[in-house]
Sequence to fold (134 residues):
Amino acid sequence: MMKSACIILLLIFVNLQSNVAYSRIDDLIGAIANCFRTGNSKELSMYFSTTVSLSLLEEGDSYSKNQAEILLHNFFSKHTIQSGKILHRMETNATNRYAVIELISSTHKFRVSLSLKNVNSKFLITDMRIDVVN
Fold:
């Protein structure tokens, strides 16, 4: 009887651990989406790799973390975001994560595509594309 109780407790513990790991992934994409919704380029830059391939309204290049933050700060200054939502996320790959976020300003709707890569056990944004949606 005691052995059965220990096995059941072990199974519950393993299940809780996997749920915690999954919620951390959700929190990452959710936290990034929240930075976009609030227009917080400073906080968003905490999720950047040391270099970011950034395509912003059809102009793109590779930028340092600081340069990408400045470009996004300028973007948010020109386009006050009113709302945003996660349209798609792919989190099943051990080395990469992908997300698509829709942002709505008073004048435009934007589609943000993100690629995150596992760098030293931490997922960081390596590629970002922001396009106007017609």
User: Anything to note?
Assistant: Helices lie at 2-38, 41-44, 65-78. The beta strands are 48-56, 59-64, 81-90, 96-105, 109-119, 122-133. The radius of gyration is 18 Å.
